[in-house]
């Protein structure tokens, strides 16, 4: 057996086509969805992420605004930008690119974003809503993983899902979404005992650890579906390349389907950001509507 590769690029293209249709429908009602991206400092990876988000927004017809502040900007200056965007009715989504410089509290800045415009889904009101099963703006990477899982497996009810990693941006919201989809969910982390044994019982494995190729065939039950969120840059034969948290070569003969790195979860994250921006725009123009 060799696992089917789950094509995140193709699924992301479908999501973006749906979003472009939704944008056109909103524009026909006189609403132009707009996403503001705030970048503080000059972290090279963050600059690439911001550039890609702005490009993708343009491709689907979403207006984007960029706010760039120097690494020495104070928390008060960042908060002033966020508050200005909160008050601007023509802006529907606000994204503050993480990480922020060490002297600025990420929690304080994220909590300052109007929850209705919080397209990253990191505000505690959205986090709480997700854990209560309310329809809220949901973190983009886990939302993208769910779309890939539903496309691969259909109904997820009753499946045993293991999430490896418990970060606020991936692991925890992923577990909440799987639970909301009626999976039985186990979350593993750095203090878990015998993680391979627990993971080896899973029908679905979501790896979000940040350790190159940590999860090998010993962790995977035959036929499991594996979603590899990890993006790790390694040196291989003198070349720099990206690998996931899963040892894909070792796992492919065991799993039934697996996301490649790159080309799996990565393209979905940005597609779901566009989806969230359109959702936010629609809701802000019909606040009583439930998605
Ligand atoms: P974090 O570093 O915030 O969290 C890593 C998690 O992995 C922690 O909960 C940690 O446990 C757990 N962990 C560490 N070592 C082990 C171990 N040996 N066994 C089990 N669990 C372990 O990372 P993120 O969640 O932010 O990101 C995870 C990966 O996903 C990274 O490679 C990142 O680059 C990638 N990523 C990809 C995205 C995409 O768009 N594709 C988006 C976001 C992230 P503990 O809590 O105990 O420390």
UniProtKB/TrEMBL annotation:
PROSITE patterns the record matches: THF_DHG_CYH_2 (PS00767)
Binding site for NADP(+): 165-167, 231
Database matches in Pfam families: THF_DHG_CYH, THF_DHG_CYH_C
Chain ranges of the Tetrahydrofolate dehydrogenase/cyclohydrolase catalytic domain: 6-120
EC number: 1.5.1.5, 3.5.4.9
Annotated metabolic or biological route of this protein: One-carbon metabolism; tetrahydrofolate interconversion
Catalyzed reaction equations: (6R)-5,10-methylene-5,6,7,8-tetrahydrofolate + NADP(+) = (6R)-5,10-methenyltetrahydrofolate + NADPH; (6R)-5,10-methenyltetrahydrofolate + H2O = (6R)-10-formyltetrahydrofolate + H(+)
Quaternary structure annotation from Swiss-Prot or TrEMBL: Homodimer.
Protein name: Bifunctional protein FolD
């Amino acid at each position: 057996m060799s696992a089917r590769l789950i094509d995140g690029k193709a699924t992301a293209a479908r999501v973006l086509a749906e979003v472009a249709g939704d944008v056109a429908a909103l524009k026909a009602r006189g609403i132009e969805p707009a996403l503001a991206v705030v970048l503080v400092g000059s972290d090279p990876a963050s600059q690439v992420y911001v550039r890609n988000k702005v490009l993708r927004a343009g491709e689907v017809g979403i207006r984007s605004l960029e706010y760039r502040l120097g690494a020495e900007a104070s928390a008060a200056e960042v908060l002033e930008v966020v508050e200005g965007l909160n008050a601007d009715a023509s802006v529907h989504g606000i994204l503050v690119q993480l990480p922020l410089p060490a002297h600025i509290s990420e929690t304080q800045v994220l909590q300052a974003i109007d929850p209705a415009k919080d397209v990253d889904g990191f505000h505690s009101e959205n986090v709480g809503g997700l854990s209560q099963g309310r329809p809220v703006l949901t973190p983009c990477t886990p939302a993208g993983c769910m779309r890939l899982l539903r496309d691969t497996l259909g109904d997820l009810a009753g499946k045993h899902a293991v999430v490896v990693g418990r970060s606020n941006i991936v692991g925890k919201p992923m577990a909440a979404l799987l639970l909301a989809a009626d999976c039985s969910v186990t979350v593993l982390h750095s203090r878990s005992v015998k993680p391979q044994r627990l993971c080896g019982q899973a029908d679905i494995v979501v790896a979000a650890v940040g350790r190159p190729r940590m999860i090998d065939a010993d962790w995977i039950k035959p036929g499991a579906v594996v979603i590899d969120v990890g993006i790790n840059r390694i040196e291989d034969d003198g070349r720099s390349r990206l690998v996931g948290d899963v040892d894909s070569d070792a796992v492919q003969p065991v799993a039934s389907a697996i996301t490649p790195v790159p080309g799996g979860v990565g393209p979905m994250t940005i597609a779901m950001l566009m989806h969230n921006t359109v959702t936010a725009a629609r809701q802000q123009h019909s606040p009583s509507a439930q998605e």
